[in-house]
Amino acid sequence: MTFLARWQQLLGIRPEEGRSVGLFFLHNFLLGIGTILVYVAANVILLENHPETSLPLAYAASALAMLGAGQVYAHYEHHLGLQKVAVRVLLAVVVLMAVIGVLVAFGESVAAAVAIMAGYRVIYLLTNLEFWGVSAVVFDVRQGRRLFSVISSGDMPAKALGAVLAVLVHHHAELLWLLLLAFGAYVGALLVVQATGRSHQVEVRSAARAARAETVATPLRRWLGSSRLVGAMCLSMLLLAAVTTGIEYVFFINVKEQFHDQAQVMRYVGTVLALTYLVAMLLKLAVTGRALDRLGPRPVLLALPLVLLAGFALFGVRNELGQSGLLLYLCGLFLVQEVLRRAFFDPVFLVLFQPLPAPERLQAHTLAKGVYEPLGLGLGALLLLALPAGLGWQIGWMLLLIAGAALLLYRTYGHYLAELSHAVGRRFGEASLPEPDPLTAANNPADQNRPAANEAEVAALVAALANKKSRAAATTQLLALGKMALPALCASLQSAGAAEGAVVRRVAYICGQLPTPKSRLALVQLARRPELAYREAALRALRYHSASPTDAPVFRELLGQELRLAQQLLHGQASSGAGPLHHALGYELKRLEQRLFGLLQQLYPPQPIRDAQRHVAQATRERQANALEILDNLIDRPTYQALQTLLELGSPAAKAARFDRLLPGAPAAFARLPEAVAERGETTFTDWTVSLALRQLPPARTHLALLQPHMASASQLVREAALAALEYWAATRPADYQAALTENPDLAALLMHHAATAHISAADRVAVLQRTALFAATPPNVLSAIVPIMQEVDLKADEQLFAQGDLGNSLFIVYEGQVGIFTGTRQLATFGPGDFFGELALLDAEPRSATARALAPTLAFRLDQEDFYDVMEERPEVLRNILRVLCQRLRRQNEASRGPV
């Protein structure tokens, strides 16, 4: 690993983000140089011209200038677009630098000093709005948490350098050289912004969202935004800005009183600033991201006001410190305030805006930085001018304001979670499951006169669920019986064998629609069974039940089991290479993710979990990031870190290593992957994964006890793979096979029967489906469920498959030969090996619009609608892929009918 890669890994920068972070870091570095040099020039002049009055006046004038500049920026940001505004802001800053240079060269009055400070504040505001505006639309909320502290640290070394230069300044002529350097830095920042625009799409775009349940009153939206989150953050920014203004003032004034010589004043102030910026940079790079990961936004956001409250409380011991001790206290207060604000508060404060839609996000930035921070600066100046000049009065009002800011920031976190929920909610209407509708005699007047069914009748209805023709009617009748059917339904769940998956899924569905304590208990017990397919069915049904705290320990235990299995699967993937078994384990991990979300719905508020689950699979980065962020703030840290590892991109080896850190203990069960999968079998895995593992068993580790259970599997895939493994074992280890044959003489007959009856194997049928466009994007783990319903159709040349007008209820896939589609004598189409036709019949049985006839001896597979519905019930991915292919065909037909545009 290169030095750069190690450095990026240490800072949490992913390889694909390296260029972006570098550009933004350089951008902020150049802005920092320019801004701190103007700040130094302004303070050198102000501290020479009666700072007791000139500083508050400068603060007030700066507030007015910033308010005006903020409004101008907001206007052009709305009308010109962010990319153009970013360039024009820096051009305006370059012009403003020239004006400040003239003031420094020729103005030595208090008015000139105040104007220079106001110019500095306007430059600070505009560059801040430009930089964070571009950052807000380039990075999403998850990247913001990891990267905002890194990219915002770019100005720290620049400001430390500027503070050191302040120590060396002894004459106004030297300030002009500093301003010239600042001018060059802003020109460099302009070039970096243009490079950023060429490599990133700096656009204000966001997906449409549903209306907020709670919003700000319409007359106040211009000043507080549409979201309560924005209002709370802006008001807290106002109070904090007033407090930081007061702290800066009392620190500068006391330094001036302690050191009467101007050179000493600048040396002391410059040293403190340099130390502040260096410490802030180190904390930003090394601590902020990790603190956010471990603690979450609220504690990190509250660190500044709470520490300042503690600092103000220490003011009572000032009389024991003396004059030099008082200066040391104020210096510490200033340093801590600056470090916490720059290293923790500012990056996290900006992250909280990220769940907002992009236009609101930029409006919120502009409000907070362009309106409320200047208002806070003005409020601080007003209080400094209006209240008595004593330090006790100044500490008093700052104490009150910081307490109010702490309260607002504490409530801000709740608004942040609400905004995250809104970001991942459905666009239209409320994202909620339909209410269960148990048609019981107790709550359905139409059924109050229905005679009660006896136990035998209910048992017969439950048994009828296994029959394709009777299951729909049986389901309806069992739902109508309601609570009367529950004893038989619960008993069937408890006694169900491993081969009764279809019946268990339907019984679980009915129990889900009858939400009573008894049906919930039966489903919880089903979820605890070792068969993971049964756990999936139980978790789907439990979505219709209210969560019960008494069941939480059960679901915590199951959650732990699933995470351990994920650890083992990742180790298995890492050791399997890029082959079919590797991809099969990837599908098993996807199933595991779905079970994890089902378990989380039983442990946490279910609706936000469902919304997050829906959005983590979205293609848009912003939706994925918002979904991960709400999970991060909703579920416990270890579970979130494990889930995040599964959901995010990365190599199986890297993910397995992270799981090893989260779940200590080596996953020994998957040290030998094929054997481990074979031992667990279909209890844990799909039949496709088991079949692949059986075919890859090394002969040295194969034994009859491992293969024998799979020879009796209900899955044709697994049976064939077990027999193939047995044949390979017999050929490569004849002595072991002969010993097994002595104990089990039926083995030879079993192998002979398998060889004699083999035609088109189950594995070959999966391969046929994979070569078919309709199923090409469907994982083979899912296609294996279609194999049992594939019926062979042998056709002679010119033999008719179906006639025009026949009721269509089957899809056909050509394996060998050719089939022609005719209307009368006119041939419309020809289908060869791998082609399919009649797919609409799977979804809607209608009369055939044409005749199908074999053009040569043909072997095809037929999939009937009724059988296919069963598969779709078990594996919804099949339906999704069919709909996707049909939509693509319809789109192509529409484009063809419109012709060239």
From TrEMBL:
CDD domains: CAP_ED
Origin species: Hymenobacter terrestris
Sorted UniProt keywords: Membrane, Transmembrane, Transmembrane helix
Occurrences of domain Cyclic nucleotide-binding (ranges): 774-889
PANTHER family according to UniProt: CYCLIC NUCLEOTIDE-BINDING DOMAIN CONTAINING PROTEIN
Spans traversing the lipid bilayer: 21-42, 54-73, 85-106, 112-135, 147-169, 175-193, 229-253, 265-287, 299-317, 323-340, 371-389
InterPro entries documented for this protein: cNMP-bd_CS, cNMP-bd_dom, cNMP-bd_dom_sf, MFS_trans_sf, RmlC-like_jellyroll
Pfam families tied to this protein: cNMP_binding (PF00027)
Coiled coil: none
Domain of life: Bacteria
Keyword Membrane: yes
Annotated protein name in UniProt: Cyclic nucleotide-binding domain-containing protein
